Amino acid sequence: MHKLSHPKIQLGHWPTPLEPMLRINAMHKGPELWVKRDDCSGLAFGGNKTRKLEYLLADAQLGGATTLLTAGGLQSNHARQTAAAAARVGLGCELFLEDVEGVSEPDYNHSGNALLNQLLGARVHRLTAGQDLNAVMALRAQTLRASGQEPYIVPVGGSNAIGAMGYVNCGLELAQQIQVQGFSFDAIVLATGSAGTQAGLLAGLALAGQDIPVLGVTVSRSSGEQCQKVLALVHEVQALLQQPKLHEDHVICFDQYYGLAYGDPTPPMIEAVRLAASLEGLFLDPVYSGKAFAGLLDLVRHGYFDISERILFLHTGGAPALFAYSDCLSEH
Ligand SMILES: *Cc1c(COP(=O)(O)O)cnc(C)c1O
Questions:
Q1: Which of 158, 186, 214 is the last residue of a domain?
Q2: Cα–Cα distances in Å, from 113 out to 43, 119, 246, 325?
Q3: Residue 239 CB-half CA count within 13 A
Q4: How far is the CA of 190 from the centre of ligand 1 (A)?
Q5: Do 224 and 121 share a structural domain?
Q6: Residue 182 shares a structural domain with residue 240
Q7: pTM for this one?
Q8: Is 184 labeled as catalytic in the residue annotation?
Q9: 199 and 124 part of one domain
Q10: Domain tally for the chain?
């Protein structure tokens, strides 16, 4: 079994469990749906950013960082987990969070991840929609450096080759679980945004010699754009690992499930969130995993998979954002 030699620190609880979706499976004739619980990663309500941050924080600490800077939307799960990781290892944390156009609900602004960021002690800079997050962050890093601090910029979503190493590791972890349980999966379905999860997992499965298709459900981009983003990152990761380049045919994305825009609460997302909660006791989120699961259900209903297949849903977390979307999720 491969073991990655890149430096990492421990932030999460591994391996995350694999579970069958028993009651959802009882409702249809197949395929059999399973879930890998990366929502239970163990850090501050969990999620997929924990794996990436284990590598990014090791890199930050090697460089003598004193403060982490990162950016995202106001309800970014990545920002919340970065703030938690910083708290855990005793680094400062500044978050550059962008208002999402047209959302003024009090819960969106103050509950969910926005509330958690405060409790975690992060300093939040709120930017208006359309401001250049990276430019503002770079400027702040300069100021911090001038005052004797050592800032470390965590890329949006933790998705550079170092962060994606967390999902290479997840690919190896999954290969091990498959070996132990004695059966495999015919496809993996996940939400894809900043691309590190899909890219890392593809590279990790290739490294482990597991040829399982990884289907990404996009949350804001066309499948063409997203596939390019994923493929570029896979190749960067594979260069770091000194592994042969994956062929582009292995990168598959679906873009018909995110609605009008990032964070748009679509009816199929709401249905998927309700279904997973009421039949499996599983909390998906409105922006990523809810849409990815809605996509998976739609693909199942349209016969995309053979009914004899076994499909793994990677639950990437995000449930704290449910509280930010209470107005569209609750029945009033
Ligand atoms: C960030 C995030 C994703 C997307 O992962 P990427 O690596 O950015 O593609 C999926 N689900 C949740 C809950 C997230 O917070």
A1: 158
A2: 13, 10, 36, 11
A3: 9
A4: 9
A5: no
A6: yes
A7: 0.98
A8: no
A9: no
A10: 2
- Residue 159 beta carbon below 6 angstroms from any ligand 1 atom: yes
Expressed as residue numbers, the domain containing 230 is 18-47+159-329
CA of 324 relative to ligand 1 center, distance in Å: 17
285 Cα nearest atom in ligand 1:
13
Residue with the nearest Cα to atom 8 of ligand 1? 194
Question: Do residue 192 and residue 86 come from a single domain?
Answer: no
* pLDDT per residue as tens, the chain (332 positions): 577 889 999 999 999 999 999 999 999 888 999 999 999 999 999 999 999 999 999 999 999 999 999 999 999 999 999 999 999 999 999 999 998 766 678 899 999 999 999 999 999 999 998 899 999 999 999 999 999 999 999 999 999 999 999 999 999 999 999 999 999 999 999 999 999 999 999 999 999 999 999 999 999 999 999 999 999 999 999 999 999 999 999 999 999 999 999 999 999 999 999 999 999 999 999 999 999 999 999 999 999 999 999 999 999 999 999 999 999 998 86
Q: Which atom of ligand 1 is nearest to 47's Cα?
A: 13
Shared-domain flag, residues 171 and 276: yes
Tell me the CATH number at 299.
3.40.50.1100
Ligand 1 atom closest to 39 (CA)? 13
Tell whether 38 and 60 lie within a shared domain.
no
Q: How many Å is the Cα radius of gyration of the chain? A: 19
For the chain, first and last CA: distance in Å? Answer: 52
Alpha-carbon distance of 129 to 133, in angstroms, equals 9
Task: Please give the distance, rounded to the nearest whole angstrom, from the Cα atom of residue 167 to the centre of ligand 1.
Answer: 11
Write the CA distances from 83 to 50, 79, 207, integer angstroms: 11, 6, 31
